[in-house]
Design goal:
By secondary structure, the chain is an alpha+beta fold. It is about 25% helix and about 30% strand. The chain has a three-stranded antiparallel β-sheet, covered by helices on one side. About 10% of the residues are buried.
């Protein structure tokens, strides 16, 4: 079986955790505990664009808001 995360023609969603980290996730897979859906099923590129538009601050959400 191939890796569903590497199937570029597949359908994906964007997830976010409580620290505001984003993850592309195959749409056919269950959302893991601790993550929530922030972009509904879309193309891989649309999901990448969504994440890119929201910046790349890698600090945990609590730290980013106190030091910004």
């Amino acid at each position: 079986m191939s890796n569903p995360f590497e199937f570029h023609e597949g359908r994906f969603v964007v997830l976010q955790n409580e620290e505001a980290y984003h993850s592309l996730w195959p749409a056919a897979m269950e959302v893991p505990a601790g993550w929530r859906l922030v972009l509904k099923e879309s193309s891989r590129q649309a999901c990448l664009d969504y994440v890119t538009e929201r910046g790349t601050d890698l600090r945990p959400a609590g730290l980013a808001t106190t030091t910004a």
